[in-house]
Structure formats: structure tokens, C-alpha cells
Amino acid sequence: TPVAHTLQRQMFWYRAKRKGSRNGWHNNRFPLLLKRMPQYLPVFREFYLIWHRKELSGGFRLTTNNRMEVYAAIAGLRSLKEPCKVTLYSDSEYLVKAMTLGWVQRWKAKNWKRNKREKALNVDLWEQLLVECERHQVEFVWVKGHAGQPENERCDQLSMNALRRGELPIDEGYE
Predict the structure, then answer these.
(1) For residues 32 and 158, is the Cβ–Cβ distance under 8 A?
(2) Three-state secondary structure call for residue 32
(3) Cut 0.90: pTM above it
(4) Which of 111, 102, 110 is nearest to 130 (CA)?
(5) Which 3 state secondary structure label does DSSP give 143?
(6) Quick one: residue 56, left, alpha or beta (phi over 0 = left, psi -120 to 50 = alpha)?
(7) Mean pLDDT across the stretch 69-84?
(8) Which of 24, 33, 145, 160 is at a distance of 20 to 30 A from 153, taking alpha carbons?
(9) Which residues pair with 53 in a beta bridge?
(10) Phi and psi at residue 94, to the nearest 5°
(11) Whether 15 contacts 144, CB under 8 Å
């Protein structure tokens, strides 16, 4: 008889930058690691631990750090085939605070305005992320970037590899 379990995944992605944009440094690619937490399956009355790992990376030719941080979260959540409990680790305070402190929900309630004068930025991405967060149970956790954490280092490698591929597509929401 199968044992009931909750699918749970951890996502890691970290900012990586390169020189050459009109505003100096910018992030034009996203690295992402997906690790599925242990899933226990009964086989002949024994339990086996199964881990899955998926690495995603990509980018756009011209965009902003914040857009790529939000886009990475969307890409990771979209890659999950079924609703899951997700712990999403990011070194982006912009992303983590916007989601955990309710900024995005307030901006949306105010017709995508931060206050009476300022429009919220990256609305196209926030709307997509909110849809994914309805599908999954997501916990956002901030981590210090580039502090020797192995997953962070791997994400940096993925990011640099994405840059070297060249011919990055256009970020339709930015350009």
C-alpha cells in the first residue's frame, strides 16, 4: 500500500552579474537548481530514498537584476509537473521581501502602484509569479549570496555558462 507523502522541493537560484549594460552591472541570466526532497516509496516493505535534481539556466540580452530574480522563481515553479510544497531560496531581498512582507499583494490591490505616484515595476512578472504561488505552496527564504554555499557556487557556474552560450533572447517585458 503506498504511503501518503507530500511532494516537497527546494529551489536555489542566485544573482550573477556581468559588465556591459547601459546601467553598468546587470544580471541577464538566471541559474536555478531544483532539488526534490526525499520521497519515500514502499518497495517490498522497505523504504527507498529517492532524490531528483534538475538544473535550469537561461537569460535575456538586456534586462535588470530584479527582473531576472523574479523570472528565475517563475521558471523554477513552472518546471514542476504537479503542485508541490516548495522552499525557494534566494539572495534577492527584492524578491523575498516582496513576497514575504506582502508588498506584491499590496501593489496588486492598489492597481499595481507602490504609492499614489509610483507604479510598481515588473508587473508582468509579479502577475505570473502570483499564479505559480497559487498552484504551489511556496516559502521564500533569503540567503546571503556568494558566501561559500555549494548550491550558490553551482548556480554561479550555471549563470556563467548561460552567458557564454550567447544569442540571448529579448526580454519582451523590458525592451
Answers:
(1) yes
(2) strand
(3) no
(4) 102
(5) coil
(6) beta
(7) 88
(8) 24
(9) 35
(10) -55, -50
(11) no
